[in-house]
Amino acid sequence: MSATLGISANYHDAAAALVVDGTLVAAMQEERFSRIKNDPSLPLSAARACLSLARLDAKDLTRVVFYENPYRKLERVLTMSLRTFPRSLSQFPRALASQLSGKLQVLDELSSRLGVPRDRVLHREHHESHAASAFFLSPFERAAVLTVDAVGEETTTALWLGEGRTLTALERIAFPHSLGLLYSALTAWCGFEVNEGEYKVMGLAAFGQPRFRDEFRKLITLASDGSFSLGLDFFDSHTNTEVGFSPKLEALLGPRRLPGKPWDLTSEADRRVADVACTLQTVLEEALLGLARRAKERTGADALCLAGGVGLNAVANARLARESGFRDFFVQPAAGDAGAALGAAILGALDSGDARPAPLERLSLGLPVSSDDARTIAKNLGLVVTPLSGPDDVAELLAKGEILAFAEGRFEFGPRALGNRSLLALPTPIAVKERLNRVIKRREPFRPFAPAVLEAEAPKFFEPFAERLAPFMVTVAGVKPEARPSLEAITHVDGTARVQTVKADSPFGAIIDAVGRRTGTPVVLNTSLNGKGDPIVGSVADAFAFFLGHSADALVVDDVLIRKP
Ligand SMILES: [Fe+2]
Hints:
This protein is of the alpha/beta class.
């Protein structure tokens, strides 16, 4: 038997993934255990949970593979700090201290904390891990692979050729020229938190016009060979790590938006922010299309794979699917650094002689919930428990207009809830969206909610979309005009939706099907089960904590319904 644990940690969103004899058996983010959103700390709880699911002990592990090279990452931070000296003087001790406090010794620490012999703990390269997660989980025998993020060791963008069991690096773009850092810096300028607010910028972009093209030409130059370079005077990811931009950016685009200020998109100031977001999104899409054209030129491949944090941009993915010139396209849906743990595990497994894993079909790779636990907790809390006889019972409640907190089976890996830890509601009327936004999720009013639709019925409601991406909610589709009245709560201002397709023979699909039989529309609004600033629910206890703190109408855990008295 061969068992390989992949680990990503120390910068943001730590995770562990386990491959046993060529099968991806478990993958979890540390945040689901620590309850700290995007927790970067060593994912020991996640690692132990992966092992326990597979009934393995740490001593059974053939190898543990860390997702990047901790020595080269440190070298990059140090040399860049010295290059910007003395501007970076204030930042230097902090950067150094944070690097040295454990990050350099991460391989030793993994060995001692997990109890795995040190010679079984290895590392790969950051972008190699991203690339492996995308290509080896795709169905393709041969594909071009793009990895695009903020920065790994020093690479920010890379092009690979994947063939069978091998990945060959073809081209790289190095720090500080980075699409991820460009998007993050502008996310901060828009007043959102970096590494968290990027989705908000994408949602906001739909409200704007791309009228800052001239200004953005100073921020980024797109070359005809697909490469790009940033106008470095405007960015400052070393001396100003909080926001990543310099005062020159505010001179160019106007003062940054204050974080937390209520939004008013009828005001001049907020419309300007929406226009900047829209220009940014447009420029990002054009940069990605340039990279894809280059990828086609260099590889002649029919298929394209994508991973790295930029791959989470569902709007850009839809455009790549339409315009990149590739016949087929796969995005590894946990495209950020958590998902690099998948790639690290697979690279280690292939080195052990394992078969290449099967194409990714589901993300329910976490721990399961049990309705027995739910009954016990509900009883202790004095809540009312009713058994459910099947999907029709759940559909009946949704059809009545209830908003349900829903936990079923194993929790998902990655940033999206796909029906295992979700808040579910009907996709209409618009008031559902307002209630979810204000009461339950307490988030910005412009952020859209996503629809989950039965795969076979999707063409009735949505314009053609990238079918390979839709099961994982990493693309968008136009909502057909005639369907919009029945899909008011999930149609974004630009007429699109971040569509998720669901097979009818899955537990979630059975509920959507039953809703369709009642309402005529086999679509359910699906948003992640978490409060503002919290990670998505993992355990039954987390589900109860959410339910007690928020005003969902009921909680469903597998086959039991729980209500407040
Ligand atoms: Fe990354």
